[in-house]
Write a structure and sequence with these properties.
5 helices, three-stranded antiparallel sheet, DNA-binding MarR family transcriptional regulator, alpha+beta, WH-like_DNA-bd_sf, 60% helix, Arc Repressor Mutant, subunit A
Length: 92
């Protein structure tokens, strides 16, 4: 699945045609780069704070992401892909 998302993502950037939902971009970024802090994800997707928070909430609600508090800085929330999502889509 990640290869297909990557192809669509590349097409989107080369043509400036919006093809992906922001939630898929978040999943792609985490799948390729590992767990990421919320602020990094927001910068990578180019979303506003409210839009980013809505995207993250939807992904948490459906069980696609899990969140942890950073050990280094208790103010940081780190998001990673849930085991459910990995087993259903990414590892296939």
């Amino acid at each position: 699945m990640i290869d297909e998302i990557r192809k669509i993502f590349n097409f989107q950037h080369s043509t400036n045609v919006k093809c992906l939902h922001n939630e898929l971009v978040i999943i792609k970024e985490i799948a390729e780069n590992g767990p990421l802090p919320s602020l990094d994800l927001m910068k990578r997707t180019g979303r506003s704070i409210s839009g980013h928070n809505q995207d993250i909430k939807r992904l948490l609600d459906i069980g696609a992401l899990k969140m942890e508090i950073s050990n280094d800085d208790k103010r940081k929330i780190i998001y990673s892909i849930s085991e459910n999502l990995k087993s259903e889509f990414i590892n296939k």
